[in-house]
Amino acid sequence: MMEKPGIVITGASGRMGQALAKLVVAQGRFQIVGAIEREGSAALGRDLGALCGLGELGVTVTDDPLPAFAKARALVDFTSPAASVAFAALAAQARLVHVVGTTGMEPEHHRKLDLAAHHAVVIQAGNMSLGVNLLTRLTQKIAEALDADWDIEIVEAHHRMKVDAPSGTALMLGEAAAKGRGIDHDKARVSGRDGITGAREKGTIGYSAIRGGDIVGEHDVIFAADGERIILRHIATDRALFARGALKAAAWGLDQKPGRYDMMDVLGL
């Protein structure tokens, strides 16, 4: 019987890392061959399975990715922008499928992912869920149909520990709206209004961020005109849905040529 392809999980002790580990074991599609954490993490030296309540898996959490990458076919990465681009360079050398769910990426990070994609499959998205990617496509189509008399506002809510705002998903939705309307997202973007801001400038895309409690993720795209509104909404109640999407992407990537992809490619949208 053919051996299962090896997979490495970075940020292994975090909420997404543990959700991924549990799902990999439950699905049986991959075999975990590495669990990576940052230098100084309290999880270093512990068994990943014991850390996740799965029992011993024989996979020790480490801060050295190279031995694990040598045994793997895929890497799933929900960490930080700086860590992700560092992993991307190593994953490209090992020719791994690199699934990047990290948010808060800036243009320089994307440029480094583009370089890595010359040698390996890089699948990066602000959100890995099927529902959010369908919402993204709907947002683009509605923006194509409505003119600038319809104001676009994106409201997102996440747990108190989230470090970036607006969320990667919110920006993905805003970029889809800008694409549908045929405008430059960066020029149209307005975030965090405060004080005497004056009237809303026509054609802009506004963002509002809510942080509190243990909210997994909620996103509203509001198209507002005089006398009517269209509201598109996605609510996530379990971060396992992001893990499912990431593993679907990793499996899909095994059959692809080196290049830069996103969840729209994975889902055939």
TrEMBL record:
- One GO MF term attached to the UniProt entry: oxidoreductase activity, acting on CH or CH2 groups, NAD or NADP as acceptor
Compartments it resides in? Cytoplasm
The biological pathway it contributes to is: Amino-acid biosynthesis; L-lysine biosynthesis via DAP pathway; (S)-tetrahydrodipicolinate from L-aspartate: step 4/4
- Enzyme's top EC category: oxidoreductase
Concerning InterPro entries, the annotation shows: DapB_C, DapB_N, DapB_N_CS, DHDPR_bac, NAD(P)-bd_dom_sf
State its Enzyme Commission number(s). 1.17.1.8
CDD domains tied to this protein: DHDPR_N
Q: Which residues bind (S)-2,3,4,5-tetrahydrodipicolinate?
A: H159, G168, T169
Dihydrodipicolinate reductase N-terminal domain segment(s): 7-128
SUPFAM superfamilies in alphabetical order? Glyceraldehyde-3-phosphate dehydrogenase-like, C-terminal domain, NAD(P)-binding Rossmann-fold domains
Q: What are the Dihydrodipicolinate reductase C-terminal domain coordinates in residue numbering?
A: 131-267
Residues bound to NADP(+) are R38
**What is the reaction catalyzed?**
(S)-2,3,4,5-tetrahydrodipicolinate + NAD(+) + H2O = (2S,4S)-4-hydroxy-2,3,4,5-tetrahydrodipicolinate + NADH + H(+); (S)-2,3,4,5-tetrahydrodipicolinate + NADP(+) + H2O = (2S,4S)-4-hydroxy-2,3,4,5-tetrahydrodipicolinate + NADPH + H(+)
Cellular component GO terms, alphabetical: cytosol
NCBIfam families linked to this entry: dapB
Which family does the record assign?
Belongs to the DapB family.
Q: What is this protein called?
A: 4-hydroxy-tetrahydrodipicolinate reductase
The record lists the organism as Stagnihabitans tardus
Organism lineage string? Bacteria, Pseudomonadati, Pseudomonadota, Alphaproteobacteria, Rhodobacterales
Which gene produces this protein? dapB
